Request: fold
Amino acid sequence: MNVLDVVVIGAGQAGLSLGYYLKRDKKNFVLLDKHKNIGDSWKKRYDSLTLFTPRKYSSLPGLALEGSQDGYPSKDEVAAYLQKYAEKFTLPVQLNTLVQLVSKEGSLYRVKTNNGDYVSKNLVVATGPFQEPYTPAFNKSFSNEVNQLHSDDYRNKSQLVKGNTLIVGAGNSGYQIATELCEDYPVYLAEGKRNKNLPHKILNKSIFWWFDVLGLSKVTERHPVGKILKKNDPVIGKEHKPYIKAGKIKMKNRLKSASQNIAMFEGGDRLTVNNVIWATGFVYSYPWLEVDDVIDSNNIPIQSRGVTNQPGFFFLGLPWMHTRGSALLTGVNKDAEYLSTIMR
Reply:
């Protein structure tokens, strides 16, 4: 069997960015992706989703995202951009390819898929942070009459029934969905912890421009300032603030438990709900991975800037893998270039 230099699992922004550098370095490699089309992981997200990074900070190496550089791209725009990116650099993407098993054979890695096996000197897992949708176990305590969706399954308001809508999780997705729905539904937003909100712009400059000027975009996860930022990662955007002030989005404490159609919050508040949208994030999931010492008992990758304890095994595109931008279009290319320089 032909031994490749690199097999990359995942052809999203992380995998494509790495592909750019591997192509530049004339490596023999392949990008494997389970989706039918490049960008499908973006297309399936909720209809109104826009990035909180402007186009100037949303491009991969070698190709700028077209349009107003101060504007914010939609999720469909990003999907089309990723497709164009793969085509421009003729990256070897194998779509409709589901990884079934990854194992180590001597110094090589074998990747078993529905489309055959691949063997390589280096293996990169670039499946990103949005893998298995997480909801707390007590979601089953709601009755079947309560319409429940994870933000990963939410597309638009047509999926909701009439009545009170509770959104659990006050991150970027939670705030965006709450803002979208609050004109048509009584919306309540359960906040697990108080997140700091930063505006998109300060003095008419993007917040990411300020991150660059202040050096915050280069602060690593091991730096004292990086540790503080990682622990208190801010929400970008304040569009929800006027709706909260007007009472159209009503804030609640952390959701503690549920019973039938009643949601119960820390502090004793209770609310009758008709819809619950779980904007509670994701957990890592690697059911196909049978390589020792690369993930812990909670499926969290064991890595330092993507490098694991197994020679030739790497992760890419994870939050705070090195800097705040490691999982974003604005920063993943730096980690990708780094990995490309240290591979066997």
Observations:
- The radius of gyration is 21 Å.
- Residues 49 and 274 are 23 Å apart (CA to CA).
